[in-house]
Amino acid sequence: MKISGLKEYVYQELKNKLIMNQFKPGERIWEEHLAEELGVSRTPVREAINQLVAEGFIENRPRKGIFAAEITKDELRKMLDVRLALESLAIKECCKNITEEEMKDLDAIYHTFAKALEDEEYNKASQWDSEIHRFIAQVANNKKLAAYVNDIQDVFAYTRGYNIKWTKEKADRSIREHKKIIEAIKSRNEEVAIEIVRKDIDSMRELLSEE
């Protein structure tokens, strides 16, 4: 594997570990341990860490070491307006471009998400929640927009495990709201879909306001 390929491999592996909360916020990350675990030298590990520092997932604390980033609820609340703007544009373009086959794919992702929530598998549900929004952005057929949506979804996926506490009531509400979003997209009714997303994000704002 080439060096650039190694860096990408390590980057994806480490980012997945962070998003899956295998490293808790504030936990020390050791270059040498990662290199040994992944079977690579420390150079691609260091390069991947530097990239994740730039993206805000890792903090480099002088004279202390490398740590999984601690993203606060206040920081997340400030990101919600950006998320709403991005997802609104993605929905608008998705409603124009989505095909019958893509509608079936979106339905399948939704049902997997809903089943995970019904089974109280909240980590799994969170992954499929992100996948719904990533898929909508992908169908929008705008690579830059999809990249921005992916980035912000990654941040919320990383923090969801420790900043948002699910309950049965919240899970049921999320299932209903996502179903309405998808039905509106399938009807190509962008105004309704965007309004539901706005309410969904307002619900998230409430969750982030709770102690």
Give your account of this protein's structure.
- The radius of gyration is 18 Å and the shape is globular.
- Helix 1 packs across helix 3, helix 4 runs antiparallel to helix 7 and helix 5 (100-118) runs antiparallel to helix 6 (122-139).
- A three-stranded antiparallel β-sheet has the order 1-3-2.
- It has nine helices and three strands; from the N terminus they run αβααββαααααα.
- Strand 2 and strand 3 (65-68) form a beta hairpin.
- 76% of the residues lie in helices and 5% in strands.
- The protein folds into two domains: 3-68, Arc Repressor Mutant, subunit A, CATH 1.10.10; 73-209, GntR ligand-binding domain-like (Four Helix Bundle (Hemerythrin (Met), subunit A), Up-down Bundle), CATH 1.20.120.530.
- The protein is mainly α and 211 residues long.
- The model has no long low-confidence stretch (mean pLDDT 91).
